[in-house]
């Protein structure tokens, strides 16, 4: 992460990381998670799922475990868990 | 890439969803599923046992909500979710009764029931998925369709004026009134949780895109609608509901308009009728 | 504190007797809406329900009243509403929901003259076909017709018992005359009143099927909060209760819905016979009209006409077999009812080729015995 001013305790602060879990065959390809991930961590995958949609894929493992995609997804197809540090 | 689903193979809401009925019927890009998810999250957040809840829906796309939640749930007739919920609540006041339905169901065919339940301060939580149209029947004009917006029955634009739902709820006597969009998923979930805990009639309007039947006719893809939700909304708690009409040009007010404490219908009924009066004479005896 | 059951002899009107019958049957929720001539049921029960731990609510219209009793019924209690013609029309869609979701409840129709606003303060029996066919789709219903305030009490209890047994709405088809008539009503001791309640499911909750029929074709019914996580829908549904839009599911559901009534006719149908043994002419009647029919039978007998009376206590399901059986040995039927030919059609259908006639009335009054006699004499 980049800071315009490095906090004095930046060494001690542990940033929570998340791991994105995608149940890709549930996806209907609305793209909400991709568009609104605050870390822009997701993208459409090239592959088709069983329903014929392009499910999301993780772009750069930059998840902060905010669960926003999980909450926004209309299909219960994506969720995040805290990643071991 | 990590083998993600194996880390935790089930979605955290799965215990609240009838997984044997998934996929649900809602279209790709429809916001109903997101609002439903926020509602389930709210139920979970309360920590109240699931068998202390009941969900009632009417008819329409969002009316299918009751069919997907894994608690005692009722998919009733068009417009009648609120009186059905009223019966449940009156008969078993310890239940948390949630009405999950759409704008057409709650405010056109069921409008009369809405205002009366609000007037009585019936202790139920009404969540209205407002997609500005009748989605299930193919996008006809609704009581919430914006003036001049196109629908399958107003092809040259809607000549009528839509309801301002928070104002209607407020004027009818609701004691909790809020509005969010499906994009404000976290606020919406927190608001629903608060509404469930609120003693009295609570109403939450949740704006939702209907890309298939409203968006298509009004040149609006679902992501365009979400962009409006992101850019053209103003969160202002305690705002005057009279200013809450939906006009994205001037900005749409979101937030909690009001929460007041007032005896619920059940409390008043118990207080006035709960104890039998020993000497009360019946006409007949 | 008032006792739950007002054992004793009372002088009350039919509407009040109906409300007392409901209380005695165990009704604990009433959703109502004022309408002449049924209002007294609501007024009386609004006073009585709080005495017995029940709840009364006056809803915003009859649609809401009918819907509220379904919601309340799913909490595991017995529920009722009462109305008259215009309100009954408004309830019709929800009646279908009650039937398809197999929700027990009792609906009272104190009939008045129609169509439309009609004769609010005058009786009729003109909703007899509406109760049978008024909601859309195909179904079977149970409807009882009380002839006196005493029967308003007795049949209301039976109506609850039938609705609990068959998980279906049961109708009390009364009329303004019986509803507003005050007579002696004897309320028995609590121990002498037979009440039935819906069976509750047992067994594994995860394997539970909401509409899996029991021995009499009816499924046990859990209440909200019992942990069965039921889903109840007005859509065509499978045994689990889940909507399935298929011809096969529709067929299975319809067979179950119709079968539970059609296969239990002996348990449901109640009739009363008066001087039928040697009768050559049968008067078929029900409700208040049956009362004038007794006199007609007696006067006919005095004139040498061998008349008898078949009084329908259960009007729906219709006693087809009973009429067919009589048709084999009698010369003709006259149906006496305050409408221009509703149940008469059923009698005619079952009696053919034995002739069947109508002694009808457009509404607003009882049918004088003389009118019945006149038709009896003219016809035969
Ligand atoms: S028709 Fe509209 S409201 Fe209905 S599911 Fe599709 S997008 Fe959603």
Helices and strands in order:
The complex is a heterotrimer of chains A (85), B (285) and C (380).
Chain A (H helix, E strand, L loop, with lengths): L17 E5 L9 H5 L5 E3 L11 E3 L9 H5 L5 E5 L3
Antiparallel strand pairs in A: 1-4, 2-3
Chain B lengths: L3 H4 L24 H15 L6 E5 L15 E3 L5 H11 L4 E7 H7 L1 H10 L4 E6 L34 H8 L3 E6 L3 H13 L4 E6 L3 H5 L6 H10 L1 E3 L16 E8 L5 H10 L11
Parallel strand pairs in B: 1-2, 1-3, 3-4, 4-6, 5-6, 7-8
Antiparallel strand pairs in B: 5-8
Helix pairs in contact in B: 2-7, 4-5, 5-6
Chain C lengths: L7 E6 H12 L1 E6 L6 H13 L3 E4 L3 H12 L4 E6 L1 H16 L4 E9 L5 E5 L4 H6 L8 E3 L4 H18 L2 E7 H5 L1 E6 L43 E3 L13 H16 L2 H4 L2 E4 L6 E5 L1 H16 L4 E6 L1 E3 L3 H8 L4 E5 L6 H9 L4 E4 L9 H11 L1
Parallel strand pairs in C: 2-3, 2-4, 4-5, 5-8, 7-8, 12-13, 12-15, 15-16
Antiparallel strand pairs in C: 1-9, 5-6, 7-14, 11-13
Helix pairs in contact in C: 1-2, 1-6, 3-4, 10-13, 11-12
The structure holds iron/sulfur cluster.
What can you tell me about this protein's structure?
The complex is a heterotrimer of chains A (85), B (285) and C (380). Chain A has a domain at 26-82: Alpha-Beta Plaits. Chain A is built from 2 helices and 4 strands; from the N terminus they run E-H-E-E-H-E. With 85 residues, chain A is an alpha+beta fold. The mean pLDDT of chain A is 91. Chain B has a single domain, classed as Thiamin diphosphate (ThDP)-binding fold, Pyr/PP domains (Rossmann fold), CATH 3.40.50. Chain B contains 10 helices and 8 strands. Chain B has helices at 4-7, 32-46, 81-91, 103-109, 111-120, 165-172, 185-197, 211-215, 222-231, 265-274; strands spanning 53-57, 73-75, 96-102, 125-130, 176-181, 202-207, 233-235, 252-259. Chain B has an 8-stranded mixed sheet, with helices on both faces. In chain B, helix 7 (185-197) links the parallel strand 5 (176-181) and strand 6. Residues 276-285 of chain B have low confidence and may be disordered. With 380 residues, chain C is an alpha/beta fold. Helix content of chain C is 38%, strand content 22%. Chain C has 13 helices and 16 strands. In chain C, the strands form 3 sheets. In chain C, strands 2, 3, 4, 5, 6, 7, 8 and 14 form an 8-stranded mixed sheet that branches. In chain C, strands 11-13-12-15-16 form a 5-stranded mixed sheet, with helices on both faces. Chain C has a two-stranded antiparallel sheet with strand order 1-9. Strand 2 (73-75) of chain B pairs parallel with strand 10 of chain C. Bound molecules: iron/sulfur cluster. Residues 26-27, 30, 32, 61, 131, 135-136, 210-213 of chain B line the site of iron/sulfur cluster.
